[in-house]
Design goal:
- It is a single chain.
- Helix content is 36%, strand content 16%.
- It contains ten helices and 13 strands.
- An eight-stranded mixed β-sheet has the order 1-2-3-4-5-6-7-8. A five-stranded mixed β-sheet has the order 9-10-11-12-13, with no helix packed on it.
- A hairpin with a 4-residue loop joins strand 4 and strand 5.
- The longest helix has 22 residues.
- Bound molecules: zinc ion.
- Zinc ion binds next to loops.
Length: 362
């Protein structure tokens, strides 16, 4: 991150989860008319966005998890967008932390994959707010496991305010690939989902050798497989590695080069192997996740120190689902997600050294 200049830093001394920031929060000039909005250290909702600036107009990659933080980002971009107003908004996928500020850009052309738009309509900000509220109640009045689950849910969403969030939808959707011209520059949108979510895309800016990856790249944090199959995610990483790219902007974590794609590939290949063994041996998904995450082979790996390693619980469950279905994608319902996240919360308590500590405060 030292290679790039931060402009309009927010000067936060702590991350939203109370960690020491590994880089400054703010707008970074990546060179060649490309910028990124970075939020350390890339934990829950600490998501990145991007800005591609052409002659007299620009393209915004993603909004943030709530209206306040999206407004703060747009304000910080003003010295640039004053002369090159945002004409296009592209969403990399439908997770709230990349899309729930969209209503602040109501004038713009909003582009996403068709699958992203469909999933975006299903995700409700009110449900996320409810998750925090119910979590708080369970934390206060529950006991044992229930109390821990409540504590994890409550803390996960505590820094955010989902009030007033609506999802206006896209003005244009596509499948496959799409090219855009932004003030004389070519920007390519490449659908790579279903992988992290149902409708993931990459935003590739060839003349700047830069790619905005959304949550196909987590850097320094554990990736989450909400949709899968993981094979599609590995294909997307191969594509990033093959493209003429020098700057890789992850959805979470610091900007870097292609090494972040390589590290993630190693994580998924490791997990694919370990999960496969346990699936064949008839072990349950929950037990497989505990066995892998708390095993000696995991502890010596770089990802044992990544943010939120307990996400292995979700990853293992979704991999099991695909193994049962033999590669066919089946939608994970919100109820299933909630059940998996409850198991994930309990695993987090078994990994007491993992950041961010503030998701476990009991
Ligand atoms: Zn995200």
């Amino acid at each position: 991150m030292a290679a790039w200049d931060v402009i309009n830093a927010t000067e936060s001394q702590r991350t939203r989860f109370g960690e020491i920031p590994q880089y400054e929060e703010g707008l970074y000039d990546l060179g060649n008319g490309v910028y990124s909005w970075m939020v350390p250290n890339g934990s829950w909702g600490e998501s990145n966005a991007g800005l591609v600036v052409g002659e007299g107009e620009s393209l915004l990659v993603d909004t943030l998890w709530d209206l306040n933080i999206t407004a703060e980002m747009l304000q910080a971009m003003q010295p640039i967008t004053r002369d090159a107003p945002i004409k296009y908004l592209v969403n990399t996928h439908a997770d709230g932390d990349h899309i729930w500020g969209n209503q602040l850009l109501a004038e713009d052309e909003v582009i996403m994959t068709l699958a992203c738009e469909e999933e975006g309509r299903e995700m409700k900000a009110a449900a996320m707010a409810m998750l925090g509220k119910v979590g708080e109640l369970l934390e206060r009045f529950g006991s044992g496991k229930v109390k821990k689950i409540g504590n994890y849910f409550h803390n996960m969403v505590a820094p955010y305010d989902f009030k007033g969030v609506v999802f206006p939808g896209a003005t244009r959707t596509f499948e496959g690939e799409m090219a855009l011209e932004v003030g004389g520059r070519e920007v390519r949108l490449i659908e790579v989902g279903p992988a992290h979510t149902l409708g993931d895309l990459l935003v590739y800016v060839p003349d700047a050798k830069t790619i905005f990856c959304g949550d196909i790249i987590f850097s320094g944090g554990t990736p989450v497989l909400w949709a899968g199959p993981v094979e599609n995610w590995l294909d997307a990483l191969e594509m990033i590695l093959d493209l003429d790219v020098e700057t890789v902007v992850p959805g979470h974590g610091p900007v870097g080069g292609k090494e972040s794609a390589l590290r993630l590939k190693e994580y998924w290949e490791f997990l694919q192997r370990e999960v496969g063994k346990r699936f064949s041996a008839g072990i349950s998904a929950r037990d497989a996740a505990y066995d892998i995450a708390l095993g000696d082979d995991f502890k010596i790996r770089a990802w044992a120190r990544w943010d939120s390693p307990e996400r292995i619980m979700t990853n293992t469950h979704i991999m099991y689902k695909h193994l049962h279905l033999q590669g066919r994608t089946k939608h994970v319902t919100p109820a299933e997600k909630l059940l998996i996240l409850s198991k994930q919360a309990l695993l987090a308590y078994e990994m007491p050294d993992a950041p961010p500590a503030s998701t476990r405060t009991l």
